[in-house]
Amino acid sequence: MNLFIDAFAWIFDPANWVAGAQSPLPIQDRLAEHLLYTFVAVLIAALIALPLGFYIGHTGKGRQFVISFTGGMRALPTLGVLFFLTMVLGYSMVSTTANFLGTMIALVLLAIPSILAGAYSGLESVDRQTIDSARASGMTELQILVKVEIPLSLPLIVGGLRSGVLQVIATVVIASYVGLGGLGRIIASGIGLNDYNRILGGAILITALALLVDGVFAVIQRLTATPGVGGPADTGRSAVRRQAQRQPATVGTPNQERE
Amino acid sequence: MIEFRGVTKQYPDGTLAIEHVDIVIQPRTITVLVGSSGSGKTTLLRMINRMVDPTSGQVLVDGTDVATVDPVRLRRSIGYVMQNGGLLPHRRIVDNVATVPLLRGVAKSAARARSLELLDTVGLDRGLADKYPRQLSGGQQQRVGVARALAADPNILLMDEPFGAVDPIVRLELQTELRRLQSALDKTVVFVTHDIDEAFALADQMVILRTGGIVAQIGTPAEVLAHPADDFVASFIGADRGQRRLRLQPRDPASGRIVVVDSAGRPAGLIEDDHASIGDGASPDVKAS
Ligand SMILES: Nc1ncnc2c1ncn2[C@@H]1O[C@H](COP(=O)(O)OP(=O)(O)OP(=O)(O)O)[C@@H](O)[C@H]1O
Ligand SMILES: [Mg+2]
């Protein structure tokens, strides 16, 4: 237990938060980098995966291909991808750029499968009759997507983003292997210095950050649950499964209460 | 007027859903498409608003081949009601009703005011306007579905087993309501059901379909009852089993009333005017029980 107390003491030691402290400190700078890498990687992944997922979910085309493809992507060892990319990219550009690009690509590849799955399984979970009826009332395909499918599947879409973000937050640590920042730097330097407080402190910071971000997403998921569809959004990845089995919301019974 | 001219529909998987159908539907009437499950009723109905395109033949609305009309524009000009109402679960009732006007760019406040009027028209309390579909009963949702279909003031109303999911009493109520609406609003209604009694209750014209999407008979309910075109129709309307055959009982001496019984001898109703002498050519109203 002492180990943890010492690690927390290290985290809360004001000296570790002083601007200009010796690298890899101060902590807030590494935190900011960690969040920035996460944000950029997830943003790029979302820009690729969301439109693709919407296309697959709306048209039903290419579903089989994408499922097996993302299955393969999930199996890629991110660290291996990182070293491979930095090596390959290193031939054609300066190593700092290669390292940064390689890290970003590895993280984007990591985040894409979850976001993609959230988007297309979200759209697939929308009651076919609702979509059919929207089309029969004269909505264009784009209007069906934007006004019906996306609002109704928003909690699942956000759920996909949420697990993508969490995976990336936990994995940004590898950026330090190629000399980039992030909280991984603190752990790496702790290993170098044989400083257990630093190693554990860094790990705790990452965990806390992940929990915090997860909490924020839980709130967003709850807020995006469409009011007419009922229950507050489930938490975590199990939401995808549970909500997919949900009864079509168009069937109601008298005086049925919204949970 | 809606016209089917030599319409055939074969789905990509090879299913022949409709085979060479010709139907003329007069404006401001209720035409009921009736037939057993899989006989192509829905397919036929959805060809009118281009939710399904025929493999060959033409569907004309007021003389225009619908194949030449942009589907989105066509659909906005035709009301469509489906079995469970097909409401958008994430939108309040009032916004559901306003779906098409909003798509057409009507201002939000005007669309809302019109929606509230339509709730009155279909006999719903305005207090339901801000609820979500799942907070309503099946029958109420069905009425909202009708209100939504009426919102763009279409000339044509397509209804696909709209009352299939509600209990018999509500169903009867909705049928009466539909007749009232139809005569009040002068719509051309095309109505799909597999319930032959519902067809008799609503139809000005009946189209009886048999498996394979073949028209077995077209006619008024009276024509169909009096002259079933073939054994299939006779069996479908229950005439062969004597289900439609009613008999008069001797006048009840105590009350002076005449009871009508069905083929099994169970009472089916009373003769409305018990002073009329039966058999003198006047056809008394038979009031169904
Ligand atoms: N999208 C489709 N693809 C292939 N076959 C279809 C499709 N839609 C309908 N069918 C087939 O076409 C035939 C007619 O179907 P349709 O839905 O028009 O029947 P229906 O009379 O409305 O039946 P129900 O009373 O069960 O609604 C059926 O054999 C059905 O299996
Ligand atoms: Mg049908």
Task: Describe the protein's architecture and organization.
Chain B: GO terms for molecular function: ATP binding. Chain B: Belongs to the ABC transporter superfamily. Chain B: Residues 270-289 are annotated as: Disordered. The complex is a heterodimer of chains A (259) and B (289). With 259 residues, chain A is an all-alpha fold. Chain A has one domain: MetI-like fold. Chain A is built from ten helices and no strands. In chain A, helix 2 (27-59) crosses helix 5 (95-124) and helix 2 runs antiparallel to helix 7. Chain B has a six-stranded mixed beta sheet. A four-stranded antiparallel beta sheet of chain B has the order 2-1-4-5, with no helix packed on it. A four-stranded antiparallel beta sheet of chain B has the order 11-12-13-14, with no helix packed on it. The model of chain B is unreliable at 279-284 (pLDDT under 50). Chain B has 289 residues and is an alpha/beta fold. In chain B, helix 7 links the parallel strand 7 and strand 8. Chain B has helices at residues 41-46, 71-76, 93-97, 99-103, 108-121, 138-150, 168-185, 196-202, 221-226, 231-236, and strands at residues 2-10, 16-25, 30-35, 56-61, 64-65, 78-81, 156-160, 188-193, 205-210, 214-219, 246-248, 259-262, 267-271, 286-288. Chain B is globular. Chain B starts with a strand and ends with a strand. In chain B, helix 5 (108-121) crosses helix 6. The interface between A and B is medium-sized, with 31 and 34 residues. The complex binds adenosine-5'-triphosphate and magnesium ion. The site of magnesium ion has 3 residues of chain B, from helix 1.
